[in-house]
Amino acid sequence: MTITSIQKTKGVRPLVMITAYDALFARLFESSSDMILVGDSLNMSFAGKSDTLSATMEQMLYHTNAVCEGAKSSFVVCDMPFGTYDNKDDALKNAMRVYKETQADSVKIEGGESRADIIEYLTTHGIAVCGHIGLLPQSVRSEGGYKVKGKDSIQREHLLRDAKAVQKAGAFCMVIEGVKAEVAAEVAQSVDIPVIGIGAGTGVDGQVLVFSDMLGLFEEFTPKFVKKYMDGASLIRSAVKNYADEVLKKEFPKEEHTY
Protein backbone atom coordinates (compact mmCIF):
# COMPACT_ATOMS: atom_id res chain seq x y z
CA MET A 1 0.00 0.00 0.00
CA THR A 2 1.01 3.59 -0.67
CA ILE A 3 -0.59 6.89 0.29
CA THR A 4 -2.15 7.00 -3.16
CA SER A 5 -3.58 3.48 -3.00
CA ILE A 6 -4.83 4.06 0.54
CA GLN A 7 -6.68 7.18 -0.54
CA LYS A 8 -8.15 5.38 -3.56
CA THR A 9 -9.96 2.94 -1.26
CA LYS A 10 -12.30 5.76 -0.16
CA GLY A 11 -15.81 4.71 -1.17
CA VAL A 12 -14.50 1.47 -2.71
CA ARG A 13 -13.65 -0.86 0.17
CA PRO A 14 -12.82 -0.64 3.88
CA LEU A 15 -9.21 -0.35 5.03
CA VAL A 16 -7.82 -2.86 7.51
CA MET A 17 -5.40 -1.50 10.12
CA ILE A 18 -3.98 -3.34 13.11
CA THR A 19 -1.34 -2.49 15.69
CA ALA A 20 1.96 -4.32 16.01
CA TYR A 21 5.02 -3.65 18.14
CA ASP A 22 7.57 -6.24 17.02
CA ALA A 23 8.83 -8.12 13.98
CA LEU A 24 7.20 -11.42 14.93
CA PHE A 25 3.61 -10.17 15.04
CA ALA A 26 4.12 -7.70 12.19
CA ARG A 27 5.12 -10.62 9.96
CA LEU A 28 2.00 -12.52 10.99
CA PHE A 29 -0.28 -9.56 10.32
CA GLU A 30 1.27 -8.40 7.06
CA SER A 31 -0.78 -10.51 4.65
CA SER A 32 -4.17 -9.51 6.10
CA SER A 33 -3.72 -5.80 6.86
CA ASP A 34 -3.43 -2.72 4.67
CA MET A 35 -1.68 -0.70 7.36
CA ILE A 36 0.21 -1.52 10.55
CA LEU A 37 0.12 1.03 13.34
CA VAL A 38 2.96 1.07 15.84
CA GLY A 39 0.77 2.53 18.54
CA ASP A 40 1.81 4.14 21.80
CA SER A 41 -0.76 1.67 23.17
CA LEU A 42 2.27 -0.59 23.59
CA ASN A 43 2.86 1.30 26.82
CA MET A 44 -0.33 -0.18 28.25
CA SER A 45 -0.40 -3.58 26.55
CA PHE A 46 3.22 -4.51 27.16
CA ALA A 47 4.77 -2.02 29.58
CA GLY A 48 1.98 -2.34 32.14
CA LYS A 49 1.25 1.39 32.33
CA SER A 50 -2.21 2.80 33.05
CA ASP A 51 -2.17 5.05 29.98
CA THR A 52 -0.04 5.91 26.94
CA LEU A 53 1.49 9.15 28.19
CA SER A 54 4.89 7.93 29.30
CA ALA A 55 5.79 6.40 25.93
CA THR A 56 9.03 7.93 24.63
CA MET A 57 10.54 8.60 21.22
CA GLU A 58 13.20 5.98 21.93
CA GLN A 59 10.50 3.35 22.59
CA MET A 60 8.59 4.26 19.47
CA LEU A 61 11.69 4.25 17.29
CA TYR A 62 12.79 0.85 18.65
CA HIS A 63 9.41 -0.78 18.10
CA THR A 64 8.85 0.87 14.72
CA ASN A 65 12.19 -0.46 13.52
CA ALA A 66 11.20 -3.94 14.66
CA VAL A 67 7.85 -3.77 12.87
CA CYS A 68 9.45 -2.51 9.68
CA GLU A 69 11.92 -5.41 9.75
CA GLY A 70 9.13 -7.92 10.21
CA ALA A 71 6.77 -6.53 7.59
CA LYS A 72 9.01 -5.01 4.95
CA SER A 73 6.24 -4.49 2.40
CA SER A 74 3.62 -3.10 4.79
CA PHE A 75 2.53 0.50 5.13
CA VAL A 76 3.73 1.33 8.64
CA VAL A 77 2.47 4.25 10.73
CA CYS A 78 4.38 5.39 13.82
CA ASP A 79 2.49 7.03 16.67
CA MET A 80 4.10 10.27 17.79
CA PRO A 81 4.23 9.99 21.59
CA PHE A 82 2.86 12.54 24.02
CA GLY A 83 4.96 15.70 24.32
CA THR A 84 6.90 15.22 21.07
CA TYR A 85 4.84 17.56 18.85
CA ASP A 86 3.79 20.41 21.11
CA ASN A 87 5.27 22.96 18.72
CA LYS A 88 6.30 22.99 15.06
CA ASP A 89 10.03 22.71 15.64
CA ASP A 90 9.80 19.78 18.05
CA ALA A 91 7.26 18.06 15.83
CA LEU A 92 9.46 18.31 12.75
CA LYS A 93 12.61 17.29 14.62
CA ASN A 94 10.95 14.19 16.07
CA ALA A 95 9.09 13.26 12.89
CA MET A 96 12.36 13.51 10.97
CA ARG A 97 13.89 11.08 13.45
CA VAL A 98 11.14 8.62 12.59
CA TYR A 99 11.93 8.97 8.89
CA LYS A 100 15.70 8.91 9.29
CA GLU A 101 15.95 6.13 11.87
CA THR A 102 13.17 3.80 10.65
CA GLN A 103 11.45 2.79 7.43
CA ALA A 104 8.04 4.01 8.63
CA ASP A 105 5.80 5.46 5.92
CA SER A 106 4.07 8.05 8.08
CA VAL A 107 3.52 9.39 11.58
CA LYS A 108 0.23 9.73 13.48
CA ILE A 109 -0.70 12.83 15.47
CA GLU A 110 -3.63 13.27 17.86
CA GLY A 111 -5.79 16.37 17.59
CA GLY A 112 -7.95 18.23 15.08
CA GLU A 113 -8.18 22.01 14.69
CA SER A 114 -5.74 22.49 17.55
CA ARG A 115 -3.06 20.48 15.75
CA ALA A 116 -3.79 21.54 12.16
CA ASP A 117 -0.85 23.95 12.06
CA ILE A 118 1.50 21.18 13.24
CA ILE A 119 0.15 18.74 10.64
CA GLU A 120 0.50 21.33 7.88
CA TYR A 121 4.06 22.13 8.94
CA LEU A 122 5.02 18.46 8.78
CA THR A 123 3.34 17.75 5.46
CA THR A 124 4.96 20.79 3.82
CA HIS A 125 8.32 19.38 4.97
CA GLY A 126 7.79 15.98 3.38
CA ILE A 127 6.31 14.07 6.34
CA ALA A 128 3.18 12.01 5.70
CA VAL A 129 0.67 12.43 8.52
CA CYS A 130 -2.22 10.26 9.66
CA GLY A 131 -4.53 12.36 11.83
CA HIS A 132 -6.44 11.21 14.93
CA ILE A 133 -9.64 12.85 16.15
CA GLY A 134 -12.43 12.03 18.60
CA LEU A 135 -11.38 10.34 21.82
CA LEU A 136 -7.69 11.14 22.25
CA PRO A 137 -5.83 8.71 24.54
CA GLN A 138 -3.05 11.24 25.11
CA SER A 139 -5.64 13.63 26.60
CA VAL A 140 -7.10 11.09 29.01
CA ARG A 141 -5.77 12.78 32.15
CA SER A 142 -6.86 16.28 31.17
CA GLU A 143 -10.33 15.01 30.26
CA GLY A 144 -10.73 12.85 33.35
CA GLY A 145 -10.99 9.53 31.56
CA TYR A 146 -11.90 7.91 28.26
CA LYS A 147 -15.07 9.69 27.16
CA VAL A 148 -17.13 8.92 24.06
CA LYS A 149 -17.49 11.88 21.70
CA GLY A 150 -20.29 13.03 19.44
CA LYS A 151 -23.03 12.86 22.06
CA ASP A 152 -24.51 16.27 21.31
CA SER A 153 -24.68 18.86 18.53
CA ILE A 154 -21.76 20.86 19.92
CA GLN A 155 -19.46 17.82 19.90
CA ARG A 156 -20.74 16.85 16.44
CA GLU A 157 -19.85 20.27 15.00
CA HIS A 158 -16.48 20.15 16.71
CA LEU A 159 -15.70 16.76 15.16
CA LEU A 160 -16.73 17.94 11.69
CA ARG A 161 -14.46 20.98 12.03
CA ASP A 162 -11.63 18.79 13.29
CA ALA A 163 -11.90 16.40 10.33
CA LYS A 164 -11.97 19.20 7.78
CA ALA A 165 -9.03 20.95 9.45
CA VAL A 166 -6.97 17.74 9.44
CA GLN A 167 -7.72 17.18 5.76
CA LYS A 168 -6.96 20.77 4.82
CA ALA A 169 -3.66 20.56 6.71
CA GLY A 170 -2.56 17.77 4.39
CA ALA A 171 -3.12 14.53 6.28
CA PHE A 172 -3.62 11.59 3.92
CA CYS A 173 -6.03 9.79 6.27
CA MET A 174 -7.20 9.92 9.88
CA VAL A 175 -8.27 7.73 12.76
CA ILE A 176 -11.54 8.54 14.53
CA GLU A 177 -11.85 6.99 17.99
CA GLY A 178 -14.65 6.57 20.50
CA VAL A 179 -17.32 8.48 18.57
CA LYS A 180 -21.06 7.81 18.25
CA ALA A 181 -21.54 5.75 15.09
CA GLU A 182 -23.91 8.11 13.30
CA VAL A 183 -21.63 11.09 13.90
CA ALA A 184 -18.53 9.16 12.81
CA ALA A 185 -20.32 8.22 9.58
CA GLU A 186 -21.16 11.86 8.95
CA VAL A 187 -17.56 12.85 9.60
CA ALA A 188 -16.33 10.24 7.12
CA GLN A 189 -18.72 11.55 4.48
CA SER A 190 -17.63 15.14 5.07
CA VAL A 191 -14.02 14.64 3.94
CA ASP A 192 -12.29 13.17 0.90
CA ILE A 193 -9.62 11.22 2.78
CA PRO A 194 -10.16 7.82 4.47
CA VAL A 195 -11.43 7.88 8.04
CA ILE A 196 -10.46 4.75 9.99
CA GLY A 197 -12.61 3.96 12.99
CA ILE A 198 -11.97 2.44 16.37
CA GLY A 199 -15.11 2.35 18.46
CA ALA A 200 -16.84 4.44 15.78
CA GLY A 201 -19.24 2.06 14.01
CA THR A 202 -19.22 0.75 10.44
CA GLY A 203 -20.06 3.94 8.57
CA VAL A 204 -16.39 4.91 8.27
CA ASP A 205 -13.72 3.95 5.72
CA GLY A 206 -11.90 1.27 7.71
CA GLN A 207 -11.19 -0.19 11.12
CA VAL A 208 -8.24 -0.45 13.50
CA LEU A 209 -7.86 -2.53 16.65
CA VAL A 210 -5.06 -3.08 19.14
CA PHE A 211 -3.93 -6.62 18.42
CA SER A 212 -3.51 -7.65 22.06
CA ASP A 213 -7.16 -6.68 22.63
CA MET A 214 -8.58 -8.51 19.62
CA LEU A 215 -6.52 -11.64 20.31
CA GLY A 216 -7.59 -11.74 23.96
CA LEU A 217 -4.07 -11.27 25.32
CA PHE A 218 -4.71 -8.10 27.33
CA GLU A 219 -6.95 -8.92 30.30
CA GLU A 220 -6.93 -5.78 32.45
CA PHE A 221 -10.08 -4.50 30.76
CA THR A 222 -11.88 -4.87 27.44
CA PRO A 223 -13.36 -1.76 25.80
CA LYS A 224 -16.92 -2.13 24.49
CA PHE A 225 -15.78 -1.70 20.90
CA VAL A 226 -13.33 -4.63 21.03
CA LYS A 227 -14.29 -8.01 19.64
CA LYS A 228 -12.06 -10.82 20.90
CA TYR A 229 -11.31 -13.08 17.95
CA MET A 230 -9.58 -15.61 20.20
CA ASP A 231 -8.94 -16.24 23.89
CA GLY A 232 -5.21 -15.80 23.55
CA ALA A 233 -4.39 -15.50 27.24
CA SER A 234 -6.05 -18.82 28.11
CA LEU A 235 -4.44 -20.59 25.16
CA ILE A 236 -0.99 -19.37 26.16
CA ARG A 237 -1.46 -20.26 29.82
CA SER A 238 -2.60 -23.75 28.84
CA ALA A 239 0.37 -24.26 26.52
CA VAL A 240 2.89 -23.05 29.10
CA LYS A 241 1.30 -25.23 31.79
CA ASN A 242 1.56 -28.27 29.50
CA TYR A 243 5.23 -27.45 28.95
CA ALA A 244 5.85 -27.03 32.68
CA ASP A 245 4.05 -30.29 33.50
CA GLU A 246 6.12 -32.21 30.96
CA VAL A 247 9.36 -30.71 32.28
CA LEU A 248 8.45 -31.66 35.84
CA LYS A 249 7.54 -35.21 34.76
CA LYS A 250 10.66 -35.44 32.56
CA GLU A 251 8.42 -36.09 29.56
CA PHE A 252 10.15 -33.30 27.66
CA PRO A 253 12.41 -33.42 25.79
CA LYS A 254 11.67 -36.69 24.05
CA GLU A 255 14.11 -38.45 21.75
CA GLU A 256 12.92 -36.50 18.69
CA HIS A 257 13.84 -33.25 20.47
CA THR A 258 17.29 -34.44 21.50
CA TYR A 259 20.60 -34.23 19.59
UniProtKB/TrEMBL annotation:
Under the subunit heading, UniProt states: Homodecamer; pentamer of dimers.
Q: Which residues form the active site?
A: E177
Key words of the record? Cytoplasm, Magnesium, Metal-binding, Methyltransferase, Pantothenate biosynthesis, Transferase
The family database entries (SUPFAM superfamilies) matched by this protein are listed as: Phosphoenolpyruvate/pyruvate domain
Matching entries from NCBIfam families are given as: panB (TIGR00222), PRK00311.1 (NF001452)
* Protein residues bound to Mg(2+): D40, D79, E110
Question: What does the entry list as the binding residues for 3-methyl-2-oxobutanoate?
Answer: D40, S41, D79, K108
Q: What is this protein called?
A: 3-methyl-2-oxobutanoate hydroxymethyltransferase
Decide whether keyword Cytoplasm is in the record: yes
The record's listing under Gene3D superfamilies reads: Phosphoenolpyruvate-binding domains (3.20.20.60)
Give the family per the record: Belongs to the PanB family.
Q: Which gene encodes it?
A: panB
Species: Sulfurimonas hongkongensis
- PANTHER family linked: 3-METHYL-2-OXOBUTANOATE HYDROXYMETHYLTRANSFERASE (PTHR20881:SF0)
GO molecular function terms attached to this record: 3-methyl-2-oxobutanoate hydroxymethyltransferase activity; magnesium ion binding; methyltransferase activity
Query: Where does it primarily localize?
Result: cytoplasm
Purpose of the protein? Catalyzes the reversible reaction in which hydroxymethyl group from 5,10-methylenetetrahydrofolate is transferred onto alpha-ketoisovalerate to form ketopantoate.
